[in-house]
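Practice problem 4.
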């Protein structure tokens, strides 16, 4: 193997490791059935907090992103176990709430692939590149997105 292809593989290593581990987690939860158990606990928490399920899904994606899970596999995990969303919400609203969580996570979570690549290039920390730089934009995006989703649920 020549040095240029070896270097390209090494650069992609940082991004592939979290995606691989998240894929193993998604497959394991789906095959063992524990995904449905986790979703039932999620529904209990949503009922206890008296929050709309679409808002809860958005915050679950953001929370898991801050725990180090890549946002796209989290969205795949949640969409895989969300076969029967209570409340009769259309699938496009469920997908929109998941995508809102993914976009906010990519902007501010400190352990995402884009931030790892940016931080390796400019030498700044993950917190500086992600959270400190983009927190106001992420909060505004989240508020406008949640307002839009809630408006669509009324229509």
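Answer key:
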């Amino acid at each position: 193997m020549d040095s240029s292809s070896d270097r390209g593989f090494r650069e992609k290593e940082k991004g592939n490791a979290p995606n691989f581990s998240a894929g193993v987690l998604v497959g394991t939860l789906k095959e063992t059935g524990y995904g449905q158990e986790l979703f039932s606990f999620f529904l209990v928490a949503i009922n206890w907090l008296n929050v709309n399920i679409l808002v809860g899904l958005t915050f679950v994606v953001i929370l898991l992103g801050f725990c180090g899970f890549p946002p796209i596999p989290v969205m795949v995990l949640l969409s895989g176990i969300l076969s029967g969303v209570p409340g009769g919400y259309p699938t496009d609203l469920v997908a929109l709430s998941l995508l809102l969580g993914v976009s906010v996570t990519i902007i501010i979570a400190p352990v995402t692939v884009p931030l790892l690549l940016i931080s390796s290039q400019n030498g700044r920390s993950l917190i500086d590149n992600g959270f400190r730089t983009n927190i106001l934009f992420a909060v505004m995006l989240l508020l406008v997105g949640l307002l839009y989703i809630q408006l669509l649920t009324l229509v």
